[in-house]
Every structure is written in C-alpha cells, then in structure tokens.
Amino acid sequence: MFSGLPTASLTVTDLFSLPFHYSVPSYQRPYSWTTEEAGQLLEDILGAAGLAGPEAAEPDYFLGAILLLDGAGGDLPKPRDREPRLFEIVDGQQRLVTLAVMAAVLRDLGTERWRWSGRNRLDQLVAADSAATKQRGARFRIELRTREQDLLETYVQTRGSCKTVPVLEDPSESEENLYAVREHFMRTLSAFDEADRRRLADYLCEQCHFVVVLTRDIDRAHRLFTVLNERGRALQRNDILKAELLKSVTPERAGEALDQWERGSDLLGKNFETFFSHLFNIYGTSEKKIIAGIRRTVQETGGPERFLKDVFTPLAHAYHCVRCADDVDLSIDAEARRHLVYLGRLPDGDWAPAAMLALQNYTDDPERGNLLLREIDRFAHLLRLLCTGTSKRVRRFGHVMDLIKSKAPITPGEGPFKISRDEIRNIAYHLRTFYKRDQPVCKLLLLRLNDEIARSVTLLEPKDYSIEHVLPLRPGAKSEWRRWFPDAEEREACTESLGNLVVVTQKQNEKARNKEFARKREIYRGFDDTPVLPITRDAVEATVWRAAEIRAREARLMELIRDTWGIDLPGTQIRSEQSDRMPLRSDVA
C-alpha cells in the first residue's frame, strides 16, 4: 500500500524533535478522543512499561502508522537534521496530540528543578525548537485549529499549565475532550511515585515507536487517508479470535458455534471488543497479551465448543446486563439493577469483570449475587472517593474476583472489600475539595446522594446535568457574595465545600453563573419546566447562603455518604442502613 513512499520507524523522541513540527489541516476533524480512548492508550503503555502489574516491561511498544504530508517535497528527515520542517498530519492526529498531552502532564508532575534532564526532555517534546520559533513563529511542536490551540497552549503545552484550572466559556466538544484527557492523565499519573513516572517517561521517549509514512501531494494523501480509515481497518481482537475458534470446531458443529458467536456480537455491539479485555482479566492467565490469554483460556476450559458454551455465552449475557441495567425492558432483579445502574455510570475498566462474575453465578444463588453486587458497588465508589489510580483499582478488584471464584463466604466490608481507617480518613479529606479533585466523579457522587435523598433510583443521564457552585467561583467585586464572605480564605473554603454544590441542567448552570443568591434560587426553582432535584432543593428553600448554611449542608451530605456506604467518617456515627430497599423509579419522588 505504501510502495514508493518514504517510510521509517521512529521513536517518540525522534518524532517530537528537530526537524519535525506539525499542523492539523482544515479537512481534519477536531480532536475527538475521550478519556476512554486516551485512558486505554495510557494503560497500554503503562502495561508495556511494566508499571501496571507484576509483569516485566516489553522491549518496545508499537503505536501504529501515521501519515504525514509535506507539500514542499523531500524525503523523511533524519533526527539529526537541523532545518525545521512543517508536516500536516493526515492520519494520526488523535494519537500524536494525546501523547503530547501525556508528555506535558508527566513534565508538570515532576518535582525536580528544571535542570533535571528528564523533565527538560519532556518539555522539549512539547515545545518547538528555537529554529522553528525564529523562522516560523511556532511556539509548540503541534498546532491545532485556532480555538483548540488556545486551550492546548494555555492549559497543556505551557510549562506548569497542566496544574491550572481553565476558565472555559461555552467550550466546544473538542475543548472539553482535551481538558478531560488532561485531567484523566493528571489523576492517573499523580498516583505513581516520581521514580515510576521517570520510568514511564523514559519508556515513552525511547521504546514507543511509530511507522511514519510521508506523502508529497494532497490528492494521494486523501486516497491513503481513505484506505487507512475505511478499507484498511486493522483486525480487532474479536476478528482474530473468531477465525481461530471457528477453524478449530468440527464441520458439523461449526454452524452452531458461529450462531453463538454472532449472538454475543449482536448483543454487545460496540462493547464487543472491550468484552474480551474483561474476559482476559477474569481468567487472569500468566499471559501478558489479551489474545494469548484468551487462547490459553480456551484450552483450559476444554476447547472452543466448551469455551463458547460455558464461558463466552454466559459472560456475554452478564456483560450485557452490566452495560444495560438502566433498560427497563431488561429482565433483572430490582436490587441487582439498582447497584448495576450506579456502577454503570462509572467507567467500567476496573469493576466490570467482578460484576460479570457475580452475575454469572447469580442464577444459582441470587442472595449471594445481590450481596456481591452491593459490595462491588460500595467498593467501586469508595475507591473513586479515595482517588485511587486505575492500576491500583484493577489490582484490588483482582482480589475481589479471587474471592468470588473461591466460593468462600462473603463478609460485607471485610476481606478484599475492606477500606482501612487511613483510607477512610483520606476519603474524608478528599471530600472537602472533591470538585477540584475529580469533577466527573463529583457529579456522580451528587447524583447518587440525590437518589438517597429521593429514596428512589432516578434514571438520570449524567451528561444532561452539571455541578453549579451556589457561592460562585469568581463573584463580582461589588456583589452580595463579597459582603456575605468578606474573608477571602473563608470564601475559598466555602466555595470548594461539598455543601456549596448543587446539580442543575446545563442551561440552568449557564444562566446562574455569578448571579446573586435570590436570582439563583429563581433559576434553580424553575427553568424550562425542569423539576428541582432533591439534592438542590435545600438551596432553593434557603433564604440566605452564608458560611453557616454551607457548613451545615456539608455536614448533612457527609452523614449521607457515611450512611450510604457504611464508613465511619470522622465526626459522624453510622446509623442503620435503609437504602437497600429503595424501589427503582424513573422519576424523582
């Protein structure tokens, strides 16, 4: 396909150094990767670097092929060339931009002085070389479209900017994606110590590589782009496994085996590829690669036919229940549905395999199944409140799966589900400024507390709602807020308090912004016939909103967290748990 085109295998360091500089042409779509795709790339690189588990690092990691356009002509430059050149990214924008964000986050999480060569090295991957700055006015190695580039420069590429909180006025989807990916990388990588981040940085720079293809005319670039993105789609895991399994089945049973496979594929749809990652984690073989691990699982379960019947089919149905628990047409026990609805709002890379195992055994012992799902629900959310990194969550849920497979008795809050006293103290500390720590999970927390107040499972779509600070983040200099909160330190503490946060629609949030409290209450009370959520009702019913009201509401919410998940938060006392009997409803009580 690339016959006659300049092609080379280059490391990330080679590709992000002189003479390479990049722009995204106007015909390209904006940055579209979410935390799912970017998070998967990070997890893959962490795994290859030997930082996601006990496995040793792999000698290298292949990031795929990218296609560059150089309208000026010429061959691919060599890393030692000193003349800067500008290339248009025809295919590979999402990966290159995501790696630039990763490098910037690793740089800004570093604690050593800038003289430390590793930190400078990361900055040099992000910043343009001096020759390019002098000749072309370029400040950074990658330039996106104007609006996206402003956010990328201000909150990612500039030294130290990954730690700043952006002020986004009506952000585009691509800007939201960039910021969400930055925050995901900050949360995940801050959980590693400095030594492991250095190991990751070294591995990223020297052992991750691309195949780079260069074309010199726009027409051929478009043709190659079409081939790469349509006809040239790489085989996915399920394509390879399907071919191997069906090839190994006897001819007379091949039709039945194909039907089983197709039913699983149709049932899971776009989640079919992810399903195999979870299946690999459930069986936890000694293999490092997913396909090799599934092959071993097929052998250990008695061959392709037994695998399809006893492993593939029941776990596919279990994963379907995990992903679609909020579908009222799905036949599932009300208590199991409640826990799965809440779990389903979280990214499912860590907790889903354990939930699948619990559901697989649910038919034989519903009481044990409900107990497992309740504990998995509790544990998954507490780990998020603890701000535990992805790799550690995966390891801890690995112990949960060991317990499930052992058939041993389950004691709530004990064994692999245990949260230590130190961890509970850390949760209490994190909750004081949780919005700043993890905005997406903070919204899920408030929606969960909303249901606890409503005494029902409200099937709300999280993306339709946002968190609004009643006391604004930036109140006007002459506003009522400044009179109510004259002390800057107290005002900041109250602003970040859990007691100051309400859940409203996006439109309500945009309309409220820095308004005075009386006007905010009117907006919360009624806007486009949107009902007031229980979590927001006390703000609507208050006559003033000062430090005393915020602290009292924070205390009530902390007590609700304590009672919901049975953790003895400092300053609270656990009462009897009643929330397990909440009925499933689609409206707010």
Question: Care to give the gist of this entry?
Answer:
Helices cover 56% and strands 8% of the residues. The chain is α/β, with parallel strands linked by helices and 589 residues long.
Secondary structure: helix percent: 55-70%
Radius of gyration: 26 Å
Strand order of the largest sheet: 1-6-3-4-2-5
Low-confidence stretches: 230-235, 573-589
**What form results from the Cα inertia axes?**
globular
Query: Treating each run of at least 4 consecutive H or I residues as one helix, how many helices?
Result: 27
Q: In total, how many domains does the architecture comprise?
A: 3
Strand content: 5-15%
Task: State mean pLDDT (0 to 100 scale).
Answer: 85
How far the N terminus sits from the C terminus, by CA atoms, comes to 61 Å
Biggest pleated sheet: 6 strands, mixed
Number of strands: 10
Find the structural class using helix and strand composition.
Answer: alpha/beta
Structure characterization notes:
There is one protein chain. The chain has 27 helices and ten strands. With about 600 residues, the protein is α/β, with parallel strands linked by helices. The chain folds into three domains: about 5-230, no CATH class; about 235-420, no CATH class; about 430-585, no CATH class. Strands 1-6-3-4-2-5 form a six-stranded mixed sheet, with helices on both faces. The chain has a two-stranded parallel sheet with strand order 7-10. Strands 8-9 form a two-stranded antiparallel ribbon. Helix 12 packs across helix 13 (about 290-300) and helix 16 (about 350-360) packs parallel to helix 18 (about 390-405). The model is unreliable at about 230-235 and about 575-589 (pLDDT under 50).
